[in-house]
Amino acid sequence: VGPKKEVAECKEKFASSVDPTVSQTFMLDRVFNPEGKSLPPMRGFKYSSWSPLGCDANGRCLLAALTMDNRLTIHTNLNRLQWLQLVDLTEIYGERLYEASYKISKADTPRGELGDFSEFQRRHSMQTPVRMEWSGICTTQQVKHNNECWDVGSVLLAVLFENGNIAVWQFQLPFLGKESITSCNTIESGINSPSVLSWWEYEHNNRKMSGLIVGSAFGPVKILPVNLKAVKGYFTLRQPVVLWQEMDQLPVHSIKCIPLYHPYQKCSCSLVVAARGAYVFWCLLLISKAGLNVHNSHVTGLHSLPIVSMTADKQNGTVYTCSSDGRVRQLIPIFTDVALKFEHQLIKLSEVFGSVRTHGIAVSPCGAYLAVITTEGMTNGLHPVNKNYQVQFVTLKTFEEAAAQLLESSVQNLFRQVDLTDLVRWKILKDKHIPQFLQEALDKKIESCGSTYFWRFKLFLLRILYQSMQKAPSEVMWRPSHEDAKILISDSPGMGSTEDDQEEGTSKQASRQSLCDTGKGMDIDDTADDSLPQSSDIGGREPMEEKLLEIQAQIEAVEMHLTREHMKRVLGEVYLHTWITENTSIPTRGVCDFLMSNDGYDDRTARVLIGHILKKMNKQTFPEHCSLCKEILPFTDRKQAVCSNGHIWLRCFLTYQSCQNLVYRRCLLHDSIARHPTPEDPEWIKRLLQGPCTFCDSPVF
């Protein structure tokens, strides 16, 4: 808000002011006085907001976090389980205001000095964030110097401040830090005491419109236009649209915007829902030839206490609300000729978790789970002494619904539907078999479509089935073992060991080995079979081992099919981006020979592609060489390369190059190995290295 020395002097002046309206306001306001002296420290977070998928360097989400001391930062999950702060937006915005003399526009008249308490308050309120929300990803095309077009992604972050101003930041993707900030524009909303913010994104006749929905603690809700001149194909409103103007003192707690299709009007529409006290305010926005049609109303009789949290499933438009008494309401929109109505039903968490108090709810991306934050409720009319916060998960879909949604999905990415795959995984682990209807439906999809997505889904099912039939480990895998390994030292000086000790150690080792061998291949729940004689155990184990071998063979066959499909894609990129007899770092000849090595594999597309590539290579082989001994690395295995001297290098699953360095990447499920891009790599190889795992769709770290 000003130079440090001047700010410190002003704080001391206001704290010791004889005017109680100044001194008490200053001492009790934690924005001015974050230290608080006798007050509790400002630790923790006020609010957080996740960006859409695909915003960071790994293709995952960014996290915007607002701390209790009003600092807005953006974080990224750079490496596995490691979070890194990329930028401090509060500091950057403060520097911009300082350079502009704390004026939003050039036409603003100069204000008073910092020593004036009203100016001191104004400078704080204009950069104290209340809420922040991410927009969807905007894609534009830029032309390079060689007239080649390439897509550039950007994302917007809207930050609502205490005085009603909104700062709209534009970031270029992938967001790497301060250098990725494209612009920052400030909009004056004109709303007093703003409480909540949400993006309004609407698509009509292939035109995308956007705006910002702002709610007030006094009740009003309105949409503000956001001018996106830099983003082609985006449009906005000509003027603000007031959705609710009554100052009825019902604070707006949460706003959700849901895109839907109107079955009667045969066009897309936008449903805006807002939690206001114990009621849900809804507004249906629809663009017709007459202009923008607005229908609004309130849903009453949902809760006896104010709504503390609201979430929405954007797939089907279902809205969930909860109050602190442990009651969750499910609101299902049903369209009528004119507007819509809501059917609502009660979800009693007390029947599932007992007496609980709820503090927040969220629905998973594909609507499979409802996450609920709870603490203990009242017992015999008494509140609990301590609060233990827990995150409970409630399934909203059955296994059959999740499987059907995965089969008919337009996303065709397992990683982006991980909540649905989790329901399927749980069912297979429990029943120890893949349901017949799912197997048949998946086989039909593979035969009719042949998309690699369905092959990856099949691989996922087979792996879970294989896991369900293995014996559960006796100890938890993540827990460290504190047992010291016994080592037999026979020739160490000063250590006396007798033959009896040696025999005892050998017998213990042999007995432990026999126990391990006996335990292999047993079922998870077959603990009752441990008391049977060993002969019957062996007899019952043989069919299980045969079944495991059969599933393992199926897994390897599906993995080989996915590998061949990706090899064809890599060879296609090689053919499109190389000149005649050009040496690429990709082992092209080895990949071609590997594809054609199996006589049973007859793919006309692959044969034609390989024929064209071999003509381009003109009898050149360009083999890889071991960096340790300079020997040739033959391409005999898709997972690793072994030279004649026995040096083993892992192969990158994205380009099939050997990773001849100490640092490489792995996919999220540790399925595959990938190398890091290097500065000398051409753009098409860097683009290949940005892809997800070919087996599980997971990002690569």
Automatic annotation (TrEMBL):
Residues 618-668 form the Transcription factor IIIC putative zinc-finger domain. Residues 488-541 are annotated as: Disordered. One of its GO terms (biological process) is transcription initiation at RNA polymerase III promoter. Residues 398-475 form the DUF5921 domain. InterPro entries: DUF5921, GTF3C4, TFIIIC_delta_N, TFIIIC_Znf, WD40/YVTN_repeat-like_dom_sf, WD40_repeat_dom_sf. One of its GO terms (cellular component) is transcription factor TFIIIC complex. Pfam families: DUF5921 (PF19336), TFIIIC_delta (PF12657), zf-TFIIIC (PF12660). PANTHER family: GENERAL TRANSCRIPTION FACTOR 3C POLYPEPTIDE 4, GENERAL TRANSCRIPTION FACTOR 3C POLYPEPTIDE 4 FAMILY. This is TF3C4 factor. The gene is Gtf3c4.
